[in-house]
Amino acid sequence: MANDRDHLQIQRRAFLGQAARGVGSMALASLLNPQLTRAGADASSGKWAGVVHPLHRTPRAKRVIFLSMAGGPSHLETLDFKPELLKRDGQPMPESFTKGQPIAQLQGQQLKCLGPQHTFQKFGKSGQELCSLFPHLGAVSDEICIVRSLVTEAINHDPAHTFMNTGSTVSGRPSMGSWVTYGLGSESEDLPGFVVLTSTGRGGQNQPIASRQWHSGFLPSQFQGVQLRGKGDPVLYLTSPPGVTRERQGEVIRSINTLNAMGPMAEDDPEVATRIAQYEMAFRMQASVPGLMDLSGETKATLDMYGTPGADGSFAANCLLARRLAERGVRFIQLYHRDWDHHGGIKNDIKLKAEEVDRASAALITDLKQRGMLDETLIVWGGEFGRTPMAQGNGRDHHIKGFSMWLAGGGIKGGTSYGKTDDFGYAAVEDIVHVHDLHATLLNQLGVDHKRLVYRFQGRDFRLTDVSGRVVNEILA
Amino acid sequence: MKILRREYLGVLVLIAMPLMKTKADETPAARSIDFNREIRPILSESCFTCHGFDKNQRKAGLRLDSRDGLLGDRPQGAKPVVVPGHPEESELFDRIHSDDAELQMPPPGKGKALTPAQVQTIRLWIDQGAEWKGHWSYIKPVRPEIALGGKAGNPIDAFLSERWNEAGVKPSPEAPRNVLIRRLSFDLTGLPPTPAELHAFEADPRPDAYDRLVDRLLGSPRHGERMAAWWLDLVRFADTAGYHSDNPRNIWPYRDYVIDAFTRNLPFDRFTAEQIAGDLLPDADTRTRVGSGYNRLLQTTEEGGAQAKEYIAKYASDRVRNASTVWLGSTVGCAECHDHKYDPFRSKDFYRFAAFFADIDEASIGARERGMPVPTGPAAQSVADLDAEIARCKAGGGDAGQVAVLEAIKADLLRSQPTTLISRSATPRVTRILARGNWMDDSGEVVQPGLPSFLASSESESRPLNRLDLASWVTSRDNPLTARVYVNRLWKLCFGQGLSKILDDLGSQGEWPTHPHLLDWLAVEFMDSGWDSRHMIRLMVTSNAYKQASRISRDMAERDPYNRLIARQARFRLDAEMVRDNALAVSGLLVEKVGGPSVKPYQPEGYWDALNFPVRTWEADRGESQYRRGLYTFWQRTFPHPSLMSFDAPSREECTAERSRSNIPQQALALLNDPSYVEASRALAERIVAEGGPDMPSKMAWAFDVVLSRRPSADEARVVGALYEKHLGEFRQDQESAKSFLGVGQRSVTSGVGIDELAAWTSVARTILNLHESITRP
Lengths: 477, 778
Prior knowledge:
The structure holds two protein chains of two kinds. Chain A is an alpha/beta fold. Helix content of chain A is about 30%, strand content about 15%. Chain A contains 13 helices and 19 strands. Chain A has helices spanning about 1-15, 25-30, 85, 95-100, 135-140, 155-165, 175-185, 245-260, 270-295, 300-305, 315-325, 345-370, 435-445; strands at about 40, 45-50, 65-70, 120-125, 130, 145-150, 195-200, 225, 330-335, 375-380, 385-390, 395-400, 405-410, 415-420, 420, 430, 435, 455, 460. In chain A, the strands form six sheets. In chain A, strands 3, 6, 7, 8, 9, 10, 13, 14 and 17 form a nine-stranded mixed beta sheet that branches. A two-stranded antiparallel ribbon of chain A has the order 1-2. Chain A has a two-stranded antiparallel ribbon with strand order 4-5. In chain A, strand 4 (about 120-125) and strand 5 form a beta hairpin. In chain B, strands 1-2 form a two-stranded antiparallel ribbon. Chain B is globular and about 95 Å long. The two termini of chain B are about 35 Å apart.
């Protein structure tokens, strides 16, 4: 029962410390939840330090930047070249592939092959093969590992996103960013540990993204992702009311905290100390978030490298913000580009998308590398699924049996590729990587054993990887 | 994570053990071990995964989840698992205290290792005769003798006293009246007391003043709204479909049905039947059909490319998860892919449960449904009159033309009325057992509706069972779960946490209740009372235990940090809706209207930007709809209102039996800057100026009275006074700022005082509304 004793110590300290001194905060907020005590609570700083203490293994990354290409990028026009499919363009898709397999909008239709709509070329010393529309990514191809054998379990966007983010298609499970901040805590003093940014593209099929995708599910709300927004308040309710200057806001908050500290509940209730700390944090965020979002201090060279004129809410601007968040110690940064659902007109749409993401994603790698941060930052790029080798008009349908992603930094072996699909790009056939495996690998790089990061809910120990998951050691440096 | 898990177990064991005044080093040999309290949790946690109910995972053919498995015969030559009185002869004990990695159980490396204390407990249990009992919540509750011979007035106090005496602790003194009325008002109506109510109660000399207060609050329509907000989380009520485009659906009349049910204190068995089978009842009418909208509350999709068959399977499991959690407090959902690991639910039970709902007429994907018209207000009367007239015509053999005209008038009238999704029974879809939950696998056995086989028999019925049968069984004496589940949740509303703390799982992995006799007594009382919710709530809030102060002494904070002895009341943050309602109430903005279409309070611009198909914008309501209680807020599942969400309101995608109660910076930002709260601060300031009396001290006293139900201390008055003076000076110099500050919100300023003075009071009001105490149930 040593842990219970620790626990009581914490509470005793709360009494002795007295609320006004702002001791303890997070630690004390969690007194009633045994799963939140012990390791996670750093009573001296009031910061959530995570439950994984010490780390299960030597970490290779301190943080994750997950670039979510929502809608499902075609692997066949980005990362997985299929000459055989080109040859068969317009011919019937062999039934041996598709019979009895899940299918989305092509239900009941004739299935014909659609050859790759763009050429591919080899890049870098490693000779990685990428679609020619992605020259900037090509230029850093020696840093990235392409995985061409992803599989997932849900064929419609909404459940597929939920699966990619939470490891389950059932709503209400924590997203990976929440798991990571629960496990590792945040390094930032004045920003949340898990931050999400979204952007749209120039197509007409921008995917709806539910706030469920960054929700903490059954984990406590403090691990929920916080959305940063390109327009309006960068964080909801961040701006003081009109007519209330920062000084006036500060005076109100000081009065609130003073009254909280002298009120009748302060003496025996640790929640009061937490409340005080949260108001202090809120006040700090009111200054730090606008500072974070203000790109005017970035050089022209940097802005050009990412391809953004400044904070314009674009994917490019968000990539630059991702670097700034990484610098400030945010643990999990997730960027959505919402416009990858190319049921029709894929040839032109992919070109537009490449223009929107190629330069910026590559710049993020280059920029982090220049700043010596790439080694400690794991970058993942990919969608919730891929697209069919079969034509849907002049586009492609949703596809879950084989698709591609790339990873970089954070202990990933650059300049390599892993896994294969068949000659048609239909099914992953070699070194298959399931979404659970991706999650296991991601946690592994952060120093966490995916089987040991668990949370008890409804009588069961849940984890991000459910009951499976394999660390893909083959792609690790 | 082993450490964390052990700790958790440790806590469970700590809780499970009687909190005697024992020192850790005293020998526990005298302790009598109860199988369900101490042994089953250990076996469930560490052994059942491989030696439990799921036959596909069972190792060595050994079960530890049944009496037979533990105490029955074993194959020839095998050592008995447990020999009562003889640990050394028991294979179980051998294995759990073995040092040999080959023999040791649980196997090393599984992360399930027993602590020495647990091994010792099992040894003691065997020593003491290894008495076995079925899982407590699966045994029908019988009314226990009231402890202490029922000497204390309220049986709840009798049961609690027994534990206090055992543990040698004393209950807390009664809280002062201002705290009592505040606590009661929030718990029963979700709103704070008005100063008039407060002072009347404080001055009421009658011995039954408290009981009168309870009756008044329970009889208020605000009570129906408060209980509805709680129930709507359980059944996952929302205004939108949930998946992908998350489009609106017509369902709000169901919310009003729930409010009405609690306001009129509909017996819970009837409430249950109306929701699960309101369309099948012999006396089905519009109201019960609206109640049957329960079956339509699940998440549905309109996404292009969705496969009907897949979603039929998803919807089936969604309904099983919800109904089994809401009424049975069971995780039947775990049996979708395999037999349950901890509780005796077979996979077949899951699919038979699902089959109860297979008759619900619905489009699996795509099609939007208008629903049944629900005439309201004067239209309801007109429809009733028309029906009577039509019936009269028909009975009198009247002319068909006249009937047709009347029917047409009625149809016309109904077209203008709100509609709501309801249950309609159609030819049932075929339900099969899906191996590993795979919807593409057609090889599984076809099943008919059936009750969980270890709890009830469905075989003797000569006709197929339907939803009405399910509802009847759920609230029958044969079902050991529902009454316990329900009263345990009511207990949480009144005391801050359940007697069994895990509100959505009373199964093997749930928590052994701190007061099992009390829980059973309450469950039986609930059934005997005719499933009378209000009776149970009254019983709880009129107990002395409820009236205790919530102050924690240092001694008790150490001895009982989690308050499992209930020797004090709990203090906790208000639920999201109450945080809003409280601000509206004290500022005088609240519009106390019951029901109607969901409303749209202010929401930050662009919050819905990530919605699509179609793109939508949130238009804040104008006029009285802007100032309604939180439970009427339009509930967009994929983007619930951010101000409510920051205070832990759930998305209502799945059943929420227990909201988390977090304390995060987003709450400070919302309370400080959300225009709803800024406007409420200004409206409160206008009240302070108009109603607070002639001078500064009286105004301040008035404000504290309204918001906190108490007077300010001298120190507090100094802090508030200093802020007022400072901001008064500033706003006097900076009238533009004062003007824009006061301009937040739709309601125009009506106060006649200078804007500098009003702005300074608004700063004060904002400060008081942001206090921890303001958003805490005391």
